[in-house]
Amino acid sequence: MTIGGGRSFASAPRAVTTNGSEGEWRRAAEPGSESVRRNRADEALLPAAPDHSSVREFSAEYLTSTRRGMWADSREALAGLALADRERVLDVGCGTGELTRVLAEESPGSVYGLDADPDLLAAGRSGDWEPLAGDALRLPATQNAVDLVVCQALLINLPDPAAAVAEFARVASDDVAAIEPDNADVTVESTVDAEAKLAAEARTAYRRGVGTDVALGGAGTREAFREAGLTDVRTARYDHVRTIEPPYAEDDLEAVRRTASGEGLAGDRETLLAGGLSAAAYDELRERWRAVGREAITQVGEDAYRRRELVPFYVTVGSVPAADDASQSD
Ligand SMILES: C[S@@+](CC[C@H](N)C(=O)[O-])C[C@H]1O[C@@H](n2cnc3c(N)ncnc32)[C@H](O)[C@@H]1O
């Protein structure tokens, strides 16, 4: 078997499977094979899924819709990843591969996307990358298996981001990069007067209940990198701007419908209650939320609805110290 670029697995580093035994990368597909490329989204090609019952769940629709347009306007903030020079890149917590596809476009090397949720991998978008099922905290790879490990919006969902970064540093020979949003600094502008304030209120309540640091951003990520022993840590900012305006895309109309039906907020009910919102306060918030959605639908009918959301993402890159450096600091 080969992994990308025709490189023989025997000459590549051995990999450790998630159950700890020596073996190959957990492969979802055979790279370079046309039939596999066509069937990349076929669940039958995926390996047995690791247990992901403790992993926060995301739907494929949520990921494709919230990442729409991301990295399409500018890739300048990815410069520190030196993608043009990489031979093997691993995107951990890749979901449907919204970033993985970008990495594959920018890197001449082999690109792998790993996620604990096989349904997201199966729904993954096209692109020249290989899906792998696995756990971010026990990567199915040996030391130095890839030159760069990347993640996007994964650390904000983990209780111990530094532990994950340390695991990334174990399998990366050169660098680790994390692209993490600061959800405390999201801004919304809308032609529906109440929308910006209500969105901020719901976000604050969500942050209180979510149990991980969803506002990790640049400062929190740098801290995790330092804790994990990475050196030369540097950060760039990328603003992901999503706009809804006429002519409305089908995704946009669906988002507005979900606001009006209260569905979007209902998915976060447990988190909001865990953050201290009473059931009555949740119902009241939901009613105001739905009213915003109804007003938005009215404005859509008149081609008057406009919404602009800015989510700041921070691209943090750190270098893996050479083995000699690590032993000196012991
Ligand atoms: C917010 S999504 C980000 C997905 C993708 N990186 C993106 O930006 O579109 C977080 C992803 O991390 C995955 N995930 C969470 N915990 C994980 C773990 N311990 N191991 C592997 N994947 C994990 C989830 O399944 C989900 O796909």
Look at the structure and name the CATH superfamily of the largest domain.
Vaccinia Virus protein VP39
**What is the CATH fold-level name of the largest domain?**
Rossmann fold
CATH architecture annotation name of the largest domain: 3-Layer(aba) Sandwich
Spans of at least 5 consecutive residues with low confidence: 1-49
| CATH C-level label of the largest domain | Alpha Beta
Q: What ions, cofactors and ligands are bound?
A: S-adenosylmethionine
> Quick one: how many beta strands?
12
Secondary-structure map with pairings?
Blueprint: E1 2-3, E2 7-8, E3 15-16, E4 22-23, H1 34-38, H2 60-66, E5 88-92, H3 98-106, E6 110-115, H4 118-122, E7 130-133, E8 146-152, H5 161-171, E9 172-181, E10 187-190, H6 195-210, H7 217-227, E11 231-244, H8 250-261, H9 263-266, H10 269-274, H11 279-301, E12 307-319, H12 323-328
Parallel strand pairs: 5-6, 5-8, 6-7, 8-9
Antiparallel strand pairs: 1-2, 3-4, 9-12, 10-12, 11-12
Helix pairs in contact: 5-7, 6-11, 8-11
S-adenosylmethionine is lined by residues 55-56, 58, 63, 67, 93-95, 98-99, 115-117, 120, 135-137, 152-154, 157.
Summarize the structure.
With 330 residues, the protein is of the alpha/beta class.
Properties at a glance:
330 residues, alpha/beta, 2 domains, 12 strands, 35% helix, disordered N terminus, binds S-adenosylmethionine
